[in-house]
Amino acid sequence: MQTVIYPVRDLDKAKAVYGALLGTEPSSDSPYYVGFTVGEQQIGLDPNGHRQGMTGPVGYYHVDDIRAAIERLVAAGAQVQQDARGVGGTRQIATVTDPDGNVIGLLQD
Question: Taking the model in full, what pTM does it have?
Fold first, then answer.
């Protein structure tokens, strides 16, 4: 897991808190997403996350083929929560839930 995205209501306040926590400035900063890079870890703040059903942070596993990953996970018993969608450039994300309802994020660049 290389990316964790937090749903936030006030992007400016969250950016200040996570900047202080991580000791760095954002590596990407836009009205729809703020990202911090710490080593190989990406910490993201999503001001639309709550409206999209996020109730807490979601860890995203980076995959080479998001459609194939979704198919493998569904065949193993996961359920699609949010199908693959573009979120800027060539990046796509999706979420599935495991049999206990835990959210698994998938990310393809």
Answer: 0.90
